[in-house]
Amino acid sequence: MKRLFADEEGVSILFEYILFSLICIGFFMIVSVNSDEIFMQTPNEVVMQNEMSDIGNMMSTMITDMYLILPANGQIDTKYDIPPKVGTETYIINADIAYTDQIIELVSSDSGKKVRVTIGGIATTMPINGTASSSSTNHMISYDSRR
Amino acid sequence: MEDLRKDTSGQWIALSGLVISLIIIGLAVLANQAALAGYHSSNAALEFPKENIRELNQHTRDNAQTIKDMAFYMNSTTNETVPVAFEQLFDNYSTQMQKLYAVHGEVVDVSLVSINSTTGNYTMEDIDMVFVNITYDDGRTHYSAEPEIIEVME
C-alpha cells in the first residue's frame, strides 16, 4: 500500500488517451443506442398519460356539469375544444362504454394507449354515448330531454 | 506546489477531462429537459357556462314568485287583471335579463308561455304554476328549456 502512494509513475500518455477514448466511445454508444427510448419515448409516454387524463377529466367534468343543469323539458348543446394531438399521436374519445362501465375511454390511434376516466355513475340515470375523434374540427355534446 | 504549477505535461489528460465534463453537462441538460417534459402537459380548458345558466334559471324562478306578488299588488291598486299584470311585469324582467346578459356577450330569452291555475280562478291561492321558455346561447353552448315549469305556490 505504501508503494502505491510512493509510486509517482502513471500510465503513458498514449495509453491514457486510449483508455479515455474507449470510455468516451463506450458511454456515447450506450447513450446513442438508448437515446430514442430515453429522450423521446419516455417523455412522450408521460405527456400522453397526463394530457389524456387531463382531457378525460375535462370531458367528465363537462358531462357532470351538464347533468347538473339539464332542463326537464329542453335541450343543451355545447361545443368544446380539445388538442388535436397528445404527445405525437391523435386519439379518440369513446363514451360508448359509459353505460356499462361508468367510464370514458381515451384511445390513442397509433400506439393504442388507453386512459380511462370515471364519470361517477351518471350514465345510469342519463344515457351517454358517442365517440369523438381529436382530429375532427368540431366537437359537441348534446342533450335532449325528448329523445 | 511550485512543482505542480511548473509541470506542463499531461495535457491530454486535462483535455480529456474537459471533454468528458462537457459531455456530462450536456447529457445532464438533456436529461433535465426530458424529465421536465413530463410535467408540461396542456390544461384542457373548460368553458362550459354552468353557473351562468344556473343563475338565469334561478333568477327566473325567484322573479316569477316576486312578479306574482307584484301582480296581485298591481291588481289591487289599478284595474289591471292579474294575468295581464303578470305578463307586463314578466316582459320587463325579460328585457332586463336580455340586456344584462348581452353585456357579457350572451344571448338569452325568457318568455312567458302560460300562467296556470288548477281552479281556473286567478286569485293568490289559485295560481300555482308558470310555464316559461328559457333559452341561453353564448356561441358555444346553447341551452333551451321549453317550457321550464315554475311553481309559484306560497
Ranges of chain B with pLDDT <50 over ≥5 residues? none
Our count of helices of chain B gives 4
β-strand amount of chain A: 15-25%
Average of pLDDT of chain A: 85
Number of strands of chain B: 3
- From the N-terminal CA to the C-terminal CA of chain B, the straight-line distance is 101 Å
In round numbers, the mean pLDDT of chain B is 83
Strand order of the largest sheet of chain A: 4-3-2-5
Quaternary status of these chains?
A: heterodimer
Tell me, what's the shape of chain A?
rod-shaped
Instruction: Tell me the number of structural domains of chain B.
Output: 2
> Total helix count of chain A?
3
Question: Given the helix and strand composition of chain A, which structural class is it?
Answer: alpha+beta
Structural class of chain B: alpha+beta
Major sheet details of chain B: 3 strands, antiparallel
Strand residue percentage of chain B: 15-25%
Measured distance between first and last alpha carbons of chain A: 90 Å
* Greatest interface by residues involved: A-B, 41 and 40 residues
Instruction: Tell me the radius of gyration of chain B.
Output: 36 Å
Categorize the overall geometry of chain B: rod-shaped
Helix percent band of chain A? 40-55%
Give an overview in words.
The complex is a heterodimer of chains A (147) and B (154). Chain A is α+β, with helices and mostly antiparallel strands and 147 residues long. Chain A has a domain at 46-144. Chain A is built from 3 helices and 6 strands; from the N terminus they run H-H-E-E-H-E-E-E-E. Chain A starts with a helix and ends with a strand. The mean pLDDT of chain A is 85. Chain B has 154 residues and is of the alpha+beta class. Chain B has 2 domains: 2-37; 50-151. In chain B, 53% of the residues lie in helices and 21% in strands. In chain B, a hairpin with a 3-residue loop joins strand 2 and strand 3 (141-151). The model of chain B has no long low-confidence stretch (mean pLDDT 83). The interface between A and B is large, with 41 and 40 residues. Strand 1 (74-79) of chain A pairs antiparallel with strand 3 of chain B.
